[in-house]
């Protein structure tokens, strides 16, 4: 199995609502784009480039770089608002400019101008010439929010939109950014829709995982050294996360982005797991095989050293530069979010404790990363943005209750002007995707509730 797939499993990125959730080894992601489901009959707008500051917080530093963005003005009418889709920890997929609720359902109703800004250090937005640790110091949510602010001010001025209200959208990590943008720059963003956002940074995210039993040896690429604790951790972690990944993205209609394997659902896995007469060992092997086949991988690679080696690659040409190296860095410097086996009630054994993830930070980025340093970084993130205590108005927090990440989300109304919508039975970012014939009634209602809020806020 390739690095990126392994990483997605490993980190269970909170994100990738805004980009392909599954990367494939050594192949351009575009190469796997299938025909979009419910295609918008319209090709996405061309990419554009914005001159951005490298360091927003050092006025004497004048270095700049080019940040990618997209604009769709087909629904815009003078007097309409600007909808801003915030990019996250992967390439900004231009399909979102013509598909998804924000552009297909909401923008026509409100005559909105739709813009999307790619997150620094992801996709084609490269602020530095490499990914060395001294370059990555310019990768943070604070710098990303400042990018959004600078972009917002420039677009307003250069397009004569001084009076337009801006509404931020985002799912997962960008869902948090969407709320934080409103919090940090309330004069620049009038309201936010924050979907499946982990609002609390947390070192040890002991998310519930609902599958029983786990054994070893699953079409491994190389024989595992059972005496190497880290490889054993990596194996357990990889398989646990692969199943968690299916749960996170269950039935989310993201096939339009070119995502592969969206027909593998909790039901698929459960029916394999509960086949009468087969041992848990065999069932896991079957699930693993199904996932490998779906992603066209020959074998499962669980070598910890190889993972670390690949994550250490500092070039934009490396595979890890598709996001693995950068996002892992953000977990080590801002968020934690390590899904560990430390919760004793979960079924995956105790083979990937917190120590496994925090030591990986040190192994990849340097020995100055320790559990203590990562814990204080996580604490700082919550001090900076408020965690669950964020003070904002006109932000709606939308979550799905089978998405493990809702555990770190705001799922009860924050105040009279910042409601929460918790959708029963939907997964990560479900409310953002295009309509699908099998959408649950409560999902359809949630999308309409967001529309009503936008009507209220924009009236
Ligand atoms: C907006 O940014 C562009 C660079 O991308 C720059 O050329 C232009 O002068 C800026 N306009 C304003 C009004 O700030
Ligand atoms: C998912 O869809 C693919 C392509 O249509 C198909 O080959 C595969 O058998 C399906 N898998 C499941 C579990 O339904
Ligand atoms: C991984 O690398 C470490 C440090 O270089 C080494 O001690 C260990 O034996 C390696 N493990 C495997 C399984 O290659
Ligand atoms: C929120 O505020 C309460 C009361 O002041 C405090 O006990 C709690 O730690 C805060 N939670 C977060 C996540 O900041």
From TrEMBL:
<comment type="similarity">
    <text>Belongs to the peptidase S28 family.</text>
</comment>
<dbReference type="GO" id="GO:0008239">
    <property type="term" value="F:dipeptidyl-peptidase activity"/>
</dbReference>
<dbReference type="InterPro" id="IPR042269">
    <property type="entry name" value="Ser_carbopepase_S28_SKS"/>
</dbReference>
<feature type="signal peptide">
    <location>
        <begin position="1"/>
        <end position="19"/>
    </location>
</feature>
<dbReference type="InterPro" id="IPR008758">
    <property type="entry name" value="Peptidase_S28"/>
</dbReference>
<dbReference type="Pfam" id="PF05577">
    <property type="entry name" value="Peptidase_S28"/>
</dbReference>
<keyword id="KW-0732">Signal</keyword>
<dbReference type="GO" id="GO:0070008">
    <property type="term" value="F:serine-type exopeptidase activity"/>
</dbReference>
<dbReference type="GO" id="GO:0006508">
    <property type="term" value="P:proteolysis"/>
</dbReference>
<keyword id="KW-0645">Protease</keyword>
<keyword id="KW-0378">Hydrolase</keyword>
<dbReference type="InterPro" id="IPR029058">
    <property type="entry name" value="AB_hydrolase_fold"/>
</dbReference>
<keyword id="KW-0325">Glycoprotein</keyword>
<protein>
    <recommendedName>
        <fullName>Serine protease K12H4.7</fullName>
    </recommendedName>
</protein>
């Amino acid at each position: 199995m390739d690095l990126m797939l392994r990483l997605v499993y490993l980190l269970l990125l909170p994100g990738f609502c805004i980009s392909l959730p599954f990367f494939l080894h050594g192949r351009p992601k575009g190469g796997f784009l299938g025909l979009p489901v419910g295609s918008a009959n319209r090709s996405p707008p061309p990419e554009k480039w914005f001159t951005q500051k490298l360091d927003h917080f050092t006025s004497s530093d004048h270095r700049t770089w080019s940040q990618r963005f997209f604009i769709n003005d087909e629904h815009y009418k003078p007097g309409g608002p600007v909808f801003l889709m915030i990019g996250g920890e992967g390439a900004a997929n231009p399909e979102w400019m013509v598909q998804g609720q924000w552009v297909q359902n909401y923008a026509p109703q409100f005559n909105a101008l739709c813009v999307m800004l790619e997150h620094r250090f992801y996709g084609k937005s490269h602020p530095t010439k490499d990914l060395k640790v001294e370059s990555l110091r310019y990768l943070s949510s604070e710098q990303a929010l400042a990018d959004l602010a600078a972009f917002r001010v420039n677009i307003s001025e250069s397009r004569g939109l001084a009076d337009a209200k801006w509404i931020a959208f985002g799912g997962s990590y960008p869902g948090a950014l969407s709320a934080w943008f409103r919090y940090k720059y309330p004069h620049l963003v009038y309201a936010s829709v924050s979907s499946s956002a982990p609002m609390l940074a947390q070192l040890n995210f002991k998310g519930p995982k609902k599958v029983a039993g786990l054994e070893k040896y699953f079409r491994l690429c190389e024989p595992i050294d059972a005496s190497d604790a880290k490889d054993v951790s990596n194996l357990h972690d990889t398989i646990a996360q692969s199943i968690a990944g299916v749960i996170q993205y269950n039935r989310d209609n993201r096939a339009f982005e070119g995502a592969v394997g969206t027909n593998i659902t909790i039901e698929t896995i459960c029916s394999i797991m509960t086949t009468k007469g087969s041992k848990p060992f065999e069932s896991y092997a079957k699930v693993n095989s199904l996932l490998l086949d779906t992603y066209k991988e020959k074998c499962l690679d669980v070598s910890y050293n190889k993972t670390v080696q690949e994550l250490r690659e500092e070039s934009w040409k490396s595979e890890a530069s598709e996001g693995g190296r950068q996002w892992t860095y953000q977990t080590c410097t801002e968020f934690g979010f390590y899904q560990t086996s430390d919760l004793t009630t979960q079924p995956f054994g105790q083979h990937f404790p917190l120590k496994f993830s925090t030591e990986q930070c040190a192994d990849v980025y340097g020995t100055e990363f320790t559990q203590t340093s990562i814990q204080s970084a996580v604490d700082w993130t919550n001090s900076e943005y408020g965690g669950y205590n964020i003070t904002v108005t006109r932000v709606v927090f939308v979550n799905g209750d089978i998405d493990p990440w809702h555990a770190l989300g705001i799922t009860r109304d924050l105040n009279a002007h910042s409601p929460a919508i918790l959708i029963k039975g939907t997964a990560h970012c479900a409310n953002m995707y295009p309509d699908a014939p099998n959408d649950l009634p409560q999902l359809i209602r949630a999308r309409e509730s967001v529309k009503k809020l936008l009507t209220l806020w924009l009236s």
